[in-house]
Amino acid sequence: MYDIDTDVRLHQYKDSAIIKRLLVYAKPFWPILLFTLILMMVSVGFFLVEPFIIGRAVDVVAGNERRASFDGTGIDFSLLTIYLILFGSAIALSALFNYFQTMLLQKVGQSIIYNIREEIFTHLKFQDIEYFNKVPTGKLVTRVTNDTNTLNEMYTSVIVTVFRNLFMFFGILIMMFILNVQLTLYIIIVLPFIVIFSFLFRRFSRKAYRLVRTNMSRLNGFLAEHLSGMKIVQIFNREAEKYEAFNKQNIELKKSFMRQLLVFAIYRPTMYLLYMIATIIIFYFGGLSVLTGAITVGTLIAFHNYLGRFFEPIQQLAEQFNIIQSAFASSERIFAILDDHPKVLDSEDAIELNDIKGEIEFRNVWFRYVEDEWVLKDVSFKVKPKESVAFVGATGAGKTTILGLLTRNYDIQKGQILLDGIDITKIKMASLRSFIGQMLQDVFMFSGTITSNIKLRSDAITDEAVIEACKYVNAHNFINKLPEKYNERVRERGNNFSAGQRQLISFARTLVHKPRIMILDEATSNIDTETEQLIQESLKKMMNIGTMLIVAHRLSTIQHVDQIIVLQQGKILEKGSHQNLLKKKGHYYNLYRLQYQDQQE
After folding, report:
1. Which DSSP state fits 351?
2. Is there a contact between 508 and 480 (Cβ–Cβ < 8 Å)?
3. What is the distance between the alpha carbons of residues 215 and 418, in angstroms, rounded to a whole number?
4. Of 115, 108, 92, nearest to 37 (Cα)?
5. pLDDT confidence of residue 534
6. 3-state SS, residue 374
7. Rounded to the nearest 10 degrees, how much is the dihedral formed by the CA atoms of 207, 210, 215, 220?
8. Residues 6+ apart with CB under 8 A from 180
9. How many other C-beta atoms lie within 10 A of the C-beta of residue 289?
10. What is the rounded distance in angstroms from the CA atom of residue 580 to the CA atom of residue 502?
11. How many whole angstroms separate alpha carbon 57 and alpha carbon 112?
12. Are 193 and 69 within 8 A, CB to CB?
């Protein structure tokens, strides 16, 4: 269940559950990750010997200087040269292994994110219509793009890097013990404070990151909605009000970012303060040890170098906490999508249909969107194969709902819907929908060409079939006059075509996929008279192809259908042909007379 305002599941995922699920995505790449881990360990090994070599080189220089001051001999550079060569080699090899490790990690990370994006999109493809009505598109886009990018950074920068820093941390600790046990024990005094502050940082940063992702999601949703509806905003002169609404959400996002930065701004200086305290301890007690001859100057320098590197992985882990917290917050939102399963599903015994006649029957169908608010009440009717049926009635009578139930956009609560005598819940949805073509009032067109919008990327449909379909529905003439004809570019949502042109293209799109049942939902409500005549001619032709269900407010467009079903408040009032219903002088007669008077005026 979703909190509609925040788009977050009402329960939150535990870190252990998130980690477990994230590791599942990495499972196919374990061999590469293991090899990367080995490369990382070798790179860390070379990195750890660098301070030790520096310390020995310093002792060589100091020893040479003492010998030269006592006996007047020259300085021996041979041993120093060897240490410098070893030091340079260690740096070069560490960098080389680190390069290969980074390249492999990026490749694995991109592959994992590719799979996650694919899984989210595939999951959304099969979601219920109700889900898309509840969750804003902008928020879903954020999940597929921004949130997966955050996970990419975690896979490429964190998983192996965390191991690297842990190896560095314990490796440096071991090297420090090898150099001097007493000084190392002094450093360990600081460790409990590091653990405490890191735990507190983890707790507060998680909340901060979750708030950032929530506010970013809200802002993206706001932008997606209002940029699409900018024409309405301008028509009603609401720019100032919408700016204020945007600014309010923008300020909230800024505040959440500042809160996140504040948490990190407190943590990092705290780590630096602990580092400086440890440095003072080292130089004080280490300096005393040098003066007493317990350790050499080179050992103290090497120890200080290790101390700096000791805090480096801790600092990096703190930064990686940022990435981890952000990734966990993003993971929660991604898993919230993946864990919200569609309610309308194929039954275990669902069958595939090879072909259908197109007989439709509603038997005592009851349906509601909201509890105790029935939209359809005991609706029963039968449509014969290749028969054309129109549904009329006031807004909210249940006309469009009937069409949506036939394609199983929703499942009914009572009754049965039969296709060729088979309950549609016993038919696989993909099979059911493959025989149904829909032409809606608001025609959606994708960016691309006219041809690609008709074919919908189907390789089985030829260009000749597209042209034939367009000729059949009277779309060929206007398409042929375009500069690029069938290759004319379609801008976003087809806004470079008129409503009538888009509707004719949608007719061709439906026809070329050879449906046995055709659904028209207010397909002629927003077009001019000339285009309506073309569509009327197309409808008459298409009625001979298969069963046709029509919802129309213009009663003039349905006079030639075989049966008209009149609905009111979810119930069937009348059924019959146009002429028969006019003779009855009932509800349909009154609707027709009112509309005819309006047209006359």
Report:
1. B
2. no
3. 46
4. 108
5. 67
6. strand
7. 170
8. 286, 289, 295, 299, 303
9. 18
10. 34
11. 45
12. no
Please state whether beta strands 489-490 and 448-449 pair in parallel, antiparallel, or not at all (unpaired).
antiparallel
Would you list the domain boundaries of the chain? 2-338, 346-435+553-601
| Collapsed DSSP state (helix, strand, coil) of residue 456 | coil
Instruction: Please answer whether residues 375 and 367 qualify as being in contact, where contact means their C-beta atoms are separated by less than 8 angstroms.
Output: yes
Average pLDDT over residues 363-382: 88
Q: How many CB atoms lie within 10 A of CB 219?
A: 18
Specify the pairing of strand 563-568 against strand 571-576.
Answer: antiparallel
CA–CA dist 457, 489 (Å, integer) = 15
465-to-264, 272, 325, 388, 469 alpha-carbon distances in Å: 62, 71, 53, 25, 6
Q: What is the CA radius of gyration of the chain?
A: 36
Residue of 355, 421, 420 whose CA lies nearest to 385: 420
How many CA within 13 A on the CB side of residue 19?
7
Burial class (CB in 10 A: 0-12, 13-18, 19+), 129: middle
CA atoms within a 13 Å half-sphere pointing along the CA-CB vector of 303: 30
CATH 1.20.1560.10 fits 2-338, yes or no: yes
What is the distance, to the nearest Å, from the Cα of residue 214 to the centroid of all Cα atoms in its chain?
A: 14
- Six-digit token pair at 23? 């590791």
If DSSP codes are grouped into helix, strand and coil, which group holds residue 583? helix
How far is the C-alpha of 220 from the C-alpha of 324, rounded, in Å? 22
The β-bridge partners of 427 are 351
In residues, how long is the chain? Answer: 601
% of the chain surpassing 90 pLDDT: 1
CB atoms within 10 A of CB 145: 12
Closest CA to 19 of 11, 9, 27: 27
% of the chain exceeding 70 in pLDDT: 89
Residue 601: per-residue pLDDT = 44
Tell me the residue ranges of DSSP E strands in 257-359: none
The Cα diameter of the chain in Å comes to: 132
Residue 422's SS3 state is strand
- The 10s digit of each residue's pLDDT in 284-335 is 888 888 888 788 888 888 888 888 787 777 767 766 766 777 787 788 888 8
pTM equals: 0.64
Residue 474 DSSP code: T
Using CA atoms of 446, 447, 450, 452 in order, give the dihedral in degrees to the nearest 10: -80
Question: What is the CATH code of the structural domain delimited by 346-435+553-601?
Answer: 3.40.50.300
**For residue 127, how far is the Cα from the chain centroid?**
13
Q: What percent of the residues of the chain are helix, what percent strand, and what percent coil, each to the nearest 5?
A: 65, 10, 20
**Tokens 């009937």 sit on residue:** 402
Q: Where would I find the beta strands (DSSP E) of 316-435?
A: 360-370, 373-383, 388-393, 414-419, 422-423
In the numeric block, which tokens belong to residue 50?
A: 């660098």
What the block records as the tokens of 491 is 């801008």
The first and second tokens of residue 139, run together, are: 């928020």
Burial 220-249 (b: 16+ CB within 10 A, else e): bbbebebeeeeeeeeeeeeeeebeeeeeeb
pLDDT in tens, 471-495: 888 888 888 888 888 888 888 777 7
CA end-to-end distance (rounded Å), the chain: 52
Q: How many CA atoms lie within 13 A of 405 on its CB side?
A: 26
515 exposed, middle or buried (CB, 10 Å; 0-12, 13-18, 19+)? Answer: buried
Write phi, then psi, for 575 (nearest 5 degrees): -140, 145
